[in-house]
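Narrative of accomplishments. A recurring question from our advisory board has been how the design workflow behaves on a single, concrete structure rather than in aggregate. To address it, we present the structure tokens for one chain from the evaluation set, followed by the sequence designed for it. No filtering or post-editing was applied between the two.
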């Protein structure tokens, strides 16, 4: 608004230099004076609105809010406003960096799907469970960070990795080797879980067979690339098509070849 005010003042000075140009100069000057009065009213209204934390929160949440205003709101006295800025997908990386100084800020930044990968890497070893869970669920989290979170001691973090649509297939395959039923259910919900991982789950938990059949990757599964395939479990064999076949899982021992 200040830029518009300067423009009005410059135009008024121009009119004064051309005072003898004709009778329309007075009409234009009156119009500009009315416009300046309206601008003053808008400035007062804007000041009053910014005094209301609910209005600032709405600005902080809107993806259409200009970057400069988000940078200003990142220093708001209200924590709720600052956290909304941290969650806003339009907030620039330089502003997000300033918001990770406390737990709430790190959590909000970890949730933000537009947080740059480099900033997410810095949260990989965060000591807070909620932050790591948000990081594991973020579709923008780099694969190398997800590879670390696969081994997280907290089951909830590993489950978020299993649900993440950006988790690479070889990591989903590794998670399928777990005996954790909640982890298997999470892998069933991920449309990117490879067929080999689903077959491994079927061997561990036959009760999930019906749900496994509904997964789009089971019928049209293809073997993972050899570089991405983890070592087969003990007793497993690799067929000609490259798939891993689980070893004998019956009660008795397999008969020896004669």
């Amino acid at each position: 608004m200040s830029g518009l005010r300067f423009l009005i003042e410059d135009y008024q000075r121009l009119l004064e230099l051309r005072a003898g140009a004709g009778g329309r100069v007075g009409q234009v000057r009156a119009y500009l004076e009315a416009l300046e009065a309206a601008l003053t009213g808008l400035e007062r209204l804007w000041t009053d609105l910014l005094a209301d934390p609910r209005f600032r929160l709405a600005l902080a949440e809107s993806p259409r809010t200009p970057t400069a205003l988000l940078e200003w709101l990142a220093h708001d006295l209200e924590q709720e406003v600052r956290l909304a800025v941290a969650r806003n997908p339009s907030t620039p990386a330089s502003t997000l960096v300033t918001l990770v100084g406390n737990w709430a800020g790190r959590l909000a930044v970890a949730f933000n799907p537009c947080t740059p990968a480099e900033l997410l890497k810095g949260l990989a070893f965060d000591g807070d469970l909620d932050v790591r869970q948000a990081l594991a669920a973020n579709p923008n989290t780099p694969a190398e960070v997800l590879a670390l979170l696969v081994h997280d001691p907290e089951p909830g973090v590993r489950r978020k990795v299993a649900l993440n649509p950006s988790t690479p297939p070889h990591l989903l395959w590794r998670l399928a080797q777990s005996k954790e039923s909640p982890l298997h259910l999470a892998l069933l919900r991920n449309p990117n879980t490879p067929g080999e991982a689903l077959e491994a789950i079927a061997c561990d938990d036959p009760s999930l067979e019906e749900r496994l059949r509904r997964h789009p990757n089971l019928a049209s599964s293809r073997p993972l690339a050899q570089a991405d395939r983890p070592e087969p479990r003990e007793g497993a064999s690799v067929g000609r098509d490259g798939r891993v076949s689980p070893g004998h899982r019956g009660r008795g021992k397999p008969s020896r070849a004669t």
